[in-house]
Amino acid sequence: MFTSVLVIQARTKVSKKSPFHDGKGHKEKMQEANSSRQKYIDKMTVNRPLNRPYLIESPGVIFSDYLPIRRYYFFTPRGIKERWNAFKNGFWTIYSLVYIRRHIKPFKLTDFGPSAQEIYIAANEALARKSKKDLQEVVTNSVYRALSNEFFPPNKNLHWRFVSAVTRPQVVHVRVGQVQTKDNLFAQITVKIHSKQVMAVKDRYGRHISGSDKLPKQVIDYVVFERPLTSTKYGTWKVCGKLHAFPAEVDTGKHLVKNVPAV
């Protein structure tokens, strides 16, 4: 009867006199490697002051909503509240205009309405042509991303044409706000644009999705324009949003849309 015997060779201990013995264990070697690696990382990541300034192009929000006056009867709670809000908005509008005139010279409120309407027309025409370069020059980055995602796909084409102005563009709301620091100021002006325009949305085959490309329609838009006050040398007025109007039976104080990125 045969029995199998398993022979396991024991690992011999390396002598200290051997040339292959370095006198250090595995743990000590790993600690030295980590320390040398950390020294290299510390050498590459030297604490240097950030001398390059950063520029915030737009705050990305509308500072204050504009609520059109509904002309409720004065001796009612709703009428009294409406007049009080109109008084406060008028006070803050005058206060904000002082800041704008201090940083932007010359600035005339009577001339801003027509120039704002030209920016509004240029934005819609660039959107109809699908010109990214022209659209970026007249709208902020947040509005550009929203409009390009909605109207730049190849399966949707916008046809837009400005016919005439029904009334003169009117400045109805002005606000100045700060972003991160007190010196970084932005001005936002809401302009009421009442115009006749032709607008239609078609698919890639020319079929109508909405609107009409022949029948002019009267449209009232409350467009918000924005400009940085600190960098007046390179700052320009751009469209940063639009406030949507609601029917008469809807309470605008509760349902007014804020920061709608549509032109």
From TrEMBL:
Where would I find the Tim44-like domain in this sequence? 95-244
Keywords carried by this UniProt record: Mitochondrion, Ribonucleoprotein, Ribosomal protein, Transit peptide
**Family per UniProt?**
Belongs to the mitochondrion-specific ribosomal protein mL45 family.
Q: List where in the cell it is found.
A: Mitochondrion
Task: Name the SMART domains on file.
Answer: Tim44
Q: What is this protein called?
A: Large ribosomal subunit protein mL45
Q: Chief localization class? A: mitochondrion
Keyword Transit peptide recorded: yes
Q: What's in the GO CC field? A: mitochondrion; ribonucleoprotein complex; ribosome
Domain of life, per lineage: Eukaryota
Q: Which residue ranges have biased composition labelled Basic and acidic residues?
A: 19-31
Native source species: Pocillopora meandrina
UniProt xrefs under Pfam families? Tim44 (PF04280)
Region annotated Disordered, chain positions: 16-36
